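chain below, 210 aa
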Amino acid sequence: MTREIEVECPSCSPEEEVGHEVMKEGQSPLVRCLECGQIHAAKIKTPKFVLLRVIVSKRDVSDTYKTELDSETALQVEDELVVDDEETGLVCPILITALEAGGKRVISAKAGEIETIWGRAIDEMTVKFSAQSGVEKTEVYEKRVPGDYEFVVGAEEKIGSKSLFITKIKVRDGAFRSRKGDVVLAKYVKRIFARKRRDGSGRDIRRGPW
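prediction:
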């Protein structure tokens, strides 16, 4: 089976990598460009790795770790990243909340330019609920779930012996999801608004907007 790689083509794509068919293996393999058919020796870039400091927040506690990345890897706030710290043995997916490069906070940068990554662990999340149980009474609950757990507007959610009906979800960018059937993963939830059953009969406190 013919192997394909992506490298720059001196004829049609000298600055951007495109698909090539490998005709002869080697340190500088002979390849044929799949865009223009040009045959040439490929320049294989040897990746340069950097060890980055990562501050991970989990359950209101922040710890510092290190993870190794290709210096050309592009990162930006709200990206997901798996932190793999060989010294501590930690392997944890995070959602990037901030980046520091050149002594200042930036939205995006290549790993080779970054000094510090801040992130929030998303393997497990504690999600907060504000549940209305009367006209003026609101109670707060918490539920521990995996980061990819789905919350659905209009659905029933069990917290211990309590049954809550989700009416609205505030996501971490400040927006709200309030249409019945809207789905938000736990790792993106800021707070969930809900209503409780009035009693054990299965009747709701009040009818929802749907």
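The chain has three domains: 4-41, 49-121, 124-196. The first strand starts at residue 4 and ends at 9.
thats it, cya
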